């Protein structure tokens, strides 16, 4: 699509389904005061996911500071076969190891800036680029107390004792069930790619259990394709601490009990 066909300039903030001048169905997100580079980060993530040739992602037609125009995938109901296929394809996404944790540029997890500075050590990356910035932000905002922060810092210092070492792979990074979207034909696709980076595969699996959970067929197909077992479930809450802290910072004290529950279990 040519830039002049982009329809977002006259639209109000929100989600819009419409057609381009060429008749292409579009899913347009408009946000006048989006954080700097917000939609560009989404574009980078979706392009990286598409290059993996695993799960479907929407095509990016146009991106501006305040809007992005995507392929409209429609909405449907996935069958059991669709879930199994998605599990296999997520395992295929995670199959290719990268050289470093991080990404070529920073991104966003929700509205929170996500530091993707590259690192060769996964535990250090997860501690210094994920857990500690969120915990310190929450402490500065008065959402955590000093004791909470000290326990997160202690947890980070001993992270290698709690999480098995693993190579960095391309992950979605914000893979709650709402970002595993059922297309019009029932096929499952990845959407909202602003948090994409190279990290632990188990981070994607863990978040898929945080707010609801796909059917068992999905995880069975993933584990068969990847040749792994369900041991990741034992430390999934620790991996999800990043997202709980992020939700605490974005949405407030309703997430404090969840944060403290994980800290109390692992710190």
Feature tags:
267 residues; alpha+beta; Phosphorylase Kinase, domain 1; Aminoglycoside 3'-phosphotransferase, Chain: A, domain 2; 4-stranded antiparallel beta sheet; two-stranded antiparallel sheet; 8 helices; 39% helix; globular
Secondary-structure blueprint:
Elements: E1 14-19, E2 25-30, H1 38-51, E3 60-64, E4 67-71, H2 80-93, E5 107-109, E6 112-114, H3 122-140, H4 146-157, E7 169-171, E8 180-182, E9 188-190, E10 197-199, H5 201-207, H6 216-226, H7 236-251, H8 256-266
Antiparallel strand pairs: 1-2, 2-4, 3-4, 5-6, 7-10, 8-9
Helix pairs in contact: 2-6, 3-4, 3-7, 4-8, 5-7, 7-8
Concise summary:
The chain is α+β, with helices and mostly antiparallel strands.
Report what the structure shows.
With 267 residues, the protein is of the alpha+beta class. The protein has 2 domains: 3-71, Phosphorylase Kinase, domain 1, CATH 3.30.200; 80-266, Aminoglycoside phosphotransferase (APH), C-terminal lobe (Aminoglycoside 3'-phosphotransferase, Chain: A, domain 2, Alpha-Beta Complex), CATH 3.90.1200.10. 39% of the residues lie in helices and 15% in strands. It has 8 helices and 10 strands. It has helices spanning 38-51, 80-93, 122-140, 146-157, 201-207, 216-226, 236-251, 256-266, and strands spanning 14-19, 25-30, 60-64, 67-71, 107-109, 112-114, 169-171, 180-182, 188-190, 197-199. The protein has a 4-stranded antiparallel β-sheet with strand order 1-2-4-3, covered by helices on one side. It starts with 13 loop residues before the first strand and ends with a helix. The mean pLDDT is 95.
